[in-house]
């Protein structure tokens, strides 16, 4: 009986430890951010801009291309199924419900996990093995300020920008289909979208961006920094980062939907 | 400067390396840690630097509690420390010059001073010609010297050197040795050296600590 209970309790304990470690990382990073001195801002700013380049700029084309196709395919499918029911009157509602509210932030997060969370995790793992993290701390460079804070800020700014571009490109893709299929004008299309949009959608999207970027960064940092002994731990850390960050993002998405729209 | 009480550490393999070590090194003093490979010299340096957590015991540097405590993070802004690693330790995405300059930039020193101290340190270690290269593009000896240059530029109160002469040819050894002698002679600088062979350091007035590997624990029948 005790063995059975222990077997049940072990994963729960592991999960709680993981949550505790995540909270510790977030709090230490926030504290390190507040303790930044003016002379250190240039170093942290430089690292942040590098992260924005890798996570935001380098992913721009991929995100815009994906969104363009998704926006177009969404309306093609909607029109093919609902053409007899006056689907053209619900263009705005469809775009807002499917793309702007849900798929925009969610797919952007998935793409960022695939491109950047994996890279952050592998990079930090390699740095751990090479003694670089220890070297930073031993030379007076706070690793939370040099490694974690710029990655968090960089991912936060990038995810926000990518969601904006994703939504814009998806709307453009949707408009192209609506225009070609029903001759819908730009004014009618945007008016329909604007009518379906509410302030609640903006708030929910901003919250998602904030929590998604935090989950992506701190999951990657957690698993990357746990690499201790061998290079074979790096791919394991990357895999765990992807699985764990995806679960976290979907849970956050569900929670935000429940709080705002249920 | 360094106070250690009852230090105990376990390596990953499960064999105890240090059992109840007590140690005092005064400000400006020099400690030479010797011992065969696997006796725990590097680990002792990491424990002193606060980058590795001991199983038990206390470490205080300049009165700041490192263990039990936050390790190296407790020393940030309190004690200026430099650590030349036996291997690795350089940021692989930065040039040698940036590796040396980065801790100085993080201290918030003015740009001209950062540049001057970096150039001086690289010059002294004979790295000026390769300073724009990254660690993977230079020899092992150059990487070792870059570790020393980073410590030199920082002008630390506490210098930790792990096998600083290992793998260096005669010319490189002479350069490193001259630097180590300067640190040992500097009354503001406390120096801890970990070496397998103490033969190169006979002329230094040092406190010595000889580590011996502890036996493997007996297996249960």
Number of DSSP helices of chain B?
6
Number of helices, counting only DSSP H or I runs of 4 residues or more of chain A: 9
Strand content of chain A: under 5%
The major sheet of chain B is characterized as:
5 strands, parallel
Radius of gyration of chain A: 21 Å
Helix content of chain B: 25-40%
Order of helices and strands of chain B: EEEHEEHEHHHEHEE
Give the structural class of chain A: mainly alpha
Helix content of chain A: over 70%
Tally of strands of chain A: 0
Q: How many strands, which pairing sense, and closed or not: the largest β-sheet of chain A?
A: none
Shape type of chain A? globular
User: What average pLDDT do the residues of chain A reach?
Assistant: 91
Biggest interface goes to: A-B, 25 and 33 residues
**Strand tally of chain B, please?**
9
Structurally, the number of domains of chain A stands at 1
Beginning-to-end CA distance, first to last residue of chain B: 46 Å
Strand content of chain B: 15-25%
Mean pLDDT of chain B: 88
Distance between the termini of chain A: 41 Å
Strand order in space, largest sheet of chain B: 6-7-8-3-9
Short description:
Chain A contains nine helices and no strands. Chain A is mainly alpha-helical. Chain B has a domain at 89-155.
Explain this structure to me?
The complex is a heterodimer of chains A (262) and B (221). With 262 residues, chain A is an all-alpha fold. Chain A has nine helices and no strands. Helix content of chain A is 87%, strand content 0%. Chain A has one domain. Chain B has a domain at 89-155. Chain B is built from six helices and nine strands. In chain B, the strands form two sheets. Chain B has a five-stranded parallel beta sheet, with helices on both faces. Classes of the chains: A mainly alpha (262), B alpha/beta (221). Chain A binds chain B through residues 37-40, 42-43, 126-127, 129-132, 134-142, 145-146, 228-229, and chain B through 12, 46, 49-52, 71-73, 75-77, 80-83, 85, 87-92, 102-103, 105-109, 150, 154, 160.
């Amino acid at each position: 009986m005790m063995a059975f209970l222990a077997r049940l309790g072990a994963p729960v304990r592991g999960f709680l430890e993981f949550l505790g470690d995540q909270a510790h990382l977030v709090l230490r990073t926030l504290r390190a951010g507040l303790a930044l001195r003016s002379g250190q801002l240039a170093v942290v700013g430089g690292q942040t801009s590098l992260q924005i380049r890798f996570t935001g700029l380098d992913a721009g084309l991929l995100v815009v291309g994906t969104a363009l196709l998704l926006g177009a395919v969404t309306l093609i499918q909607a029109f093919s199924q609902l053409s007899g029911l006056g689907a053209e009157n619900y263009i705005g509602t469809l775009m807002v419900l499917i793309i702007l509210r849900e798929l925009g932030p969610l797919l952007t997060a998935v793409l960022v996990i695939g491109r950047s969370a994996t890279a952050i995790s592998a990079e930090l793992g390699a740095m751990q093995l090479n003694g670089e993290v220890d070297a930073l701390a031993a030379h007076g460079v706070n690793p939370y300020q040099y490694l974690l804070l710029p990655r968090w800020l960089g991912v936060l700014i990038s995810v926000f920008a990518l969601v904006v571009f994703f939504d814009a490109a998806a709307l453009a893709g949707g408009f192209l289909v609506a225009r070609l299929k029903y001759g819908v004008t730009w004014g009618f299309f945007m008016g329909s979208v604007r009518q379906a949009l509410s302030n609640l959608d903006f708030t929910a999207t901003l919250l998602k961006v904030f929590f998604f970027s935090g989950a992506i960064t701190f999951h990657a940092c957690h698993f990357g920094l746990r690499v201790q002994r061998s290079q074979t731990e790096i791919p394991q850390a990357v895999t765990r980062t992807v699985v764990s960050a995806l679960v976290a993002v979907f849970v956050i998405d569900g929670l935000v939907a429940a709080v705002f729209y249920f | 400067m360094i106070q250690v009480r009852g230090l105990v550490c376990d390596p990953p393999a499960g064999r105890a390396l240090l059992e109840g070590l007590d140690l005092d090194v005064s400000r400006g003093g020099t400690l030479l840690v010797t011992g065969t490979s696997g006796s725990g010299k590097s680990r002792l340096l990491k424990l002193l630097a606060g980058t590795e957590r001991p199983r038990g015991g206390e470490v205080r540097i300049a009165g700041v509690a490192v263990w039990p405590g936050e390790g190296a993070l407790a020393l940030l802004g309190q004690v200026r420390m430099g650590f030349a690693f036996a291997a690795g330790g350089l940021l692989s995405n930065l040039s040698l010059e940036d590796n040396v300059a980065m801790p100085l930039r993080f201290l918030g020193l003015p740009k001209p001073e950062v540049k001057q101290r970096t150039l001086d340190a690289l010059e002294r270690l004979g790295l000026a010609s390769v300073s724009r290269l990254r660690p993977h593009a230079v020899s092992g000896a150059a990487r070792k010297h870059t570790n020393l240059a980073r410590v030199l530029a920082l002008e630390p109160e506490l210098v930790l050197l792990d096998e600083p002469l290992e793998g260096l040819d005669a010319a490189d050894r002479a350069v490193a040795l001259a630097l180590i002698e300067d640190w040992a002679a500097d009354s503001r600088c406390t120096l801890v050296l970990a070496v397998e062979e103490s033969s190169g350091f006979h002329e230094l007035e040092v406190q010595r600590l000889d580590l011996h590997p502890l036996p493997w624990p007996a297996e249960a029948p």
